[in-house]
Amino acid sequence: MDYLKAVVLALVEGITEFLPVSSTGHMILLEDFLQLGQDPEFADAFMVIIQLPAILSVLLYFWKDLWPWHGGDNKDTGETLRLWMLVGIAFIPAVILGLLLDEIMETYLFHSLPVACALIIGGIVLIMIERRNHSHAIESIHDLTAKQALGIGFFQCLALIPGTSRSAATIIGGLLLGANRSVAAEFSFFLAIPTMLAATCYTLMKRGLSFTGEQWILLGLGSVVSFVVAYLSIAFLMNYIKQRSFTVFGIYRIFLGALVLLYLFIMQ
């Protein structure tokens, strides 16, 4: 059963990590129903470690955009290095605020009720943003300015509230700052690399890596599933947004949040 649970958790992580529906929120909700093994510390570490393969999937999918020396000319190299600089600028607000508020967030907000409320509120905002008439001044990720990147970074801070969704927060920030859907989603993926890597390393420093042989097998299985599914999830979203809006994700968030609230009300 633990192997099946590991696959299910990794599937959910891979599917939801880059969609604007909150992977953290889904994992918290799943923890109420699935208990991975008898060691809570390992279960928490598992949730964090399987994010690393998702980061690798971003690097693989966008390799030519992210590697400065992939064989292009000096202009391409300069644009890629500038893109990494923008990602670094956008990363700063969340890492500072995350370190300051980590204990508060984990104590008071990592529960089903706050997650359900954040899912609903985020879904409503996502639908409202999509219904606005946007003037997309930014048609290429290389047209982003440092100021706009920092603004998206501040939007990412909203994702410290579980259920909000890091992807949703950064995509909404990009749309409001003038980016089209593709640019907003692409920059959200790139910003995930340092953000998720830092969060993973920070959590592992707190929890350690003292696992049994079977636990390492579960981690390996979960990592493979997470990597493959996350890669497919990125490919799906990049193709999806070329013709469709994010409204369906907003509707899904509201439905899921309402379902969780109903469940919590019945179980009282």
In short, what is this structure?
This protein is mainly alpha-helical.
Layout of strands and helices, then pairs:
Elements: H1 2-16, H2 23-31, H3 40-49, H4 51-61, H5 63-66, H6 74-108, H7 112-131, H8 146-156, H9 166-176, H10 181-207, H11 213-240, H12 247-267
Helix pairs in contact: 1-2, 1-11, 3-10, 4-10, 4-11, 6-8, 6-10, 7-9, 7-12, 8-9, 9-10
How would you sum up this structure, described in words?
- There is one protein chain.
- The protein is mostly helical and 268 residues long.
- The chain has one domain.
- Helices cover 75% and strands 0% of the residues.
- It has 12 helices and no strands.
- The chain has helices spanning 2-16, 23-31, 40-49, 51-61, 63-66, 74-108, 112-131, 146-156, 166-176, 181-207, 213-240, 247-267.
- α4 (51-61) runs antiparallel to α10 (181-207) and α9 runs antiparallel to α10 (181-207).
- The longest helix is centred in the middle third of the chain and has 35 residues, at 74-108.
- The model has no long low-confidence stretch (mean pLDDT 87).
Outline:
globular
Overall SS class: mainly alpha
Beta fraction of the residues?
Answer: under 5%
Low-confidence stretches: none
Radius of gyration: 18 Å
Order of helices and strands: HHHHHHHHHHHH
**What is the mean pLDDT?**
87
User: Level of helix content?
Assistant: over 70%
Q: Tell me about the biggest sheet? A: none
Span of the ends, CA to CA: 29 Å
How many strand elements? 0
Count of folded domains: 1
Total count of helical runs of at least 4 residues? 12
Could you list some keywords that capture this structure?
mainly alpha; 75% helix; globular
